[in-house]
Specification:
About 45% of the residues lie in helices and about 15% in strands. By secondary structure, it is of the alpha/beta class.
């Protein structure tokens, strides 16, 4: 019943083609071919032949991004799930569980339409941020300094969010943010600052410079995902409002 209800909502509300299965064996039969064509797996942690997350492990094994739903949850389970780099998880303990799963899938499907620029002069840190964003299905571009970031935005006017580190060689993230705000308003380009600094004033400085948000490293993966999702949701809502406010054009 739960699977049938989700299938109906995914198809009717999101316009997706949905295939369901009730066991790991059935899942292997459907997705065993490397050309299976699936974009996303929404899987329960416990199936009759998969009592210990084997279905989730199989999805990740075949490079199929996964959203997890489960009826049992505690902090140990949370840690175990997050270590597997799932896209999201939903707990089946309220009437809102259906809505939360649909919203999680909607977000992943929508993310493909957003391009994000990651700016960091440390390759390792930049790669970590890019990997986390690409796991959420965003289109990601990289820049290793402020000057390169400005060039990338000129070349890619469809960039809608900039994630910038503070400490960089040519110009710091604060200076980059102020430069961007001369030409791009917050409703067009979101800017999120990131730093390893322990200075509690840095976040306020970034926000005063025009940043939309700020994150101190090290951050929890869930916090990172939520902050990005919130800023993308704001952009989406602003786009809807702009379209609703646009005057209709009549043609004869």
């Amino acid at each position: 019943m739960f699977t049938s209800a989700l299938k109906y909502r995914f198809e009717s509300e999101l316009g997706l083609d949905v295939v369901t299965c009730s066991s790991l064996a059935e899942m292997r039969g459907l997705a065993g071919d490397e050309k299976h064509g699936f974009f996303l797996a929404v899987t329960d942690l416990n199936l009759p032949d998969s009592p210990h997350c084997e279905a989730l492990d199989y999805a990740l094994e075949i490079d199929l991004p996964a959203i997890v739903f489960t009826g049992k949850f505690d902090f140990n389970m949370r840690e175990k799930i997050l270590k597997k780099n799932v896209l999201d998880y939903v707990i089946k303990d309220t009437d809102k569980a259906f809505d939360e799963i649909v919203q999680a899938v909607r977000r992943i499907v929508t993310n493909r339409h957003y391009r994000i620029l990651v700016v960091d002069d440390t390759k390792t840190q930049r790669s970590i941020l890019c990997s986390m964003l690409r796991a959420q299905k965003f289109d990601v571009i990289e820049a290793s300094c402020g000057a390169e970031a400005l060039e990338m935005i000129e070349l890619n006017p469809d960039i809608q969010l900039v994630l910038t580190d503070y400490h960089m060689g040519d110009m710091n993230g604060y200076q980059l943010t102020r430069t961007l705000r001369r030409n791009y308003s917050d409703d067009v380009l979101r800017v999120i600052g990131v730093s390893n600094s322990t200075d509690p004033q840095l976040s306020a400085s970034f926000l005063k410079a025009g940043a939309s948000d700020f994150l101190y490293r090290p951050f929890v993966q869930e916090e990172f995902q939520c902050r990005i999702a919130q800023n993308i949701a704001i952009l989406s809502k602003l786009d809807e409002l702009k379209k609703a406010a646009s005057p209709a054009v009549a043609t004869a």
